[in-house]
Amino acid sequence: MLRAKPAASVARPLILSSYDEVWSLLDWDQLLSRLRTVMAQFSASRKQPPQIAHGIQKTEMVHIAQPIRSWIEIPQHSGSYGVMPCFVADGDLLSTKVVSSYAKNPTQYSLPSHNAWVMLFDGKTGVLKAMLEGASITAKRTAAASALATETLSNKTYETLAILGSGVQARSHLEVHQRTFGFKKINLWNYQRSTADKLKEELQSGRDQALYPEVEVFENVQDAVKDADVICTVTMSTSPVLLSEWVTKKDVHINGKSTQPRHQFSYDWVTKKDVHINAVGAPRPTWQELSADLMNRGSIYVDTEVAARHESGDLIMSGAEIYAELGEVFNKTKEARWKQLTIFKNLGMAIEDAVSADIIFQKYHEKN
Asked: Domain residue spans in the chain?
């Protein structure tokens, strides 16, 4: 039987299945810089009006294409399966992430509850360039987006960081926040105290222990967030774990001396600064991590408004208003209201996976 041959041979795609290898290739500094750029591009492209000629919308150029992620449910196995495609014209990045979530995996099969692969294609030809282990990418790019929000929306006081949750996202959020801001104290809370205790032990005995000078585990959320400047909620909770009455302005002690030659004086006062929250969990329309009254107190920022209105239970069930996409702050079309309570609802975007995959692909070939 004769078979048609392709016009040209296609290079074998890069396949990296190791979580640790993919993690090590995804550099934090590059990731933070690239995410800031692509999120600004995304928000700008979404606001651009379509070009119309003779009553027909022209589609000669797409800057960013990113539909809402598609999910199918597999209830008999307590599972779900999602697909996240996108195209980014800057770099001609074409990417799809496939992700599965099976709640019973850890207890029934000793397997992770979340598994993922990211496929990177050449946007000019559609040829597959790489297949990359996706859980590590998800962990890093999600935490990096939160760190960008902390940098942009917080009151710039980096004394105490509270982490609610002790899983993969807790670890990645801790690492990037400590590398970027160097909080003096870390407060941990988890439903199972033993898991938080284990995380504390890992932090203070690992090779990066210098990043975590003071870590304390709390029995309840209220005490964990009491003195926090920044709070990251990274749980699998389906009902609120963080209530409005627990999130209060913090007294900040300021003292020093004037350096003006003709007006030398000392100053010493206490001011109140509000809190910034990165809300990462509750990615389903009926799930919540933050109480409705807390959501309605803050200025709400999101990664993508369309997906947030469709997917975020914190927003849907509270009826809270979205103030801006984070990318709109980056491109200066909206302001950062850092003087008041700010909440970044971080659902994650396919363009973040595409940029991450591109960094990994380039870094791999630089080393090999």
From this structure: 14-47+57-136+353-367, 139-349
Q: What is the pLDDT of residue 2?
A: 60
CA 181 centroid distance within chain:
16
Of residues 362, 308, 367, 300, the one with CA closest to residue 130: 362
DSSP string, 45-84: HHHSPPPEETTEE--S--SEE-PPPEEEEEGGGTEEEEEE
Q: What are phi and psi of 256, to 5 degrees?
A: 165, -165
CATH topology of domain 139-349: Rossmann fold (3.40.50)
- Under the banding of pLDDT at 50, 70 and 90, the label for residue 264 is low
Q: Whats the size of the chain, residue-wise?
A: 368
Interstrand relation of 250-257 and 266-273 (parallel, antiparallel or unpaired): antiparallel
Write the DSSP assignment of 127-158 as a string of letters.
Answer: -EEEEEEHHHHHHHHHHHHHHHHHHHHS-S--
Identify residue 13 by its one-letter amino acid code.
Answer: P
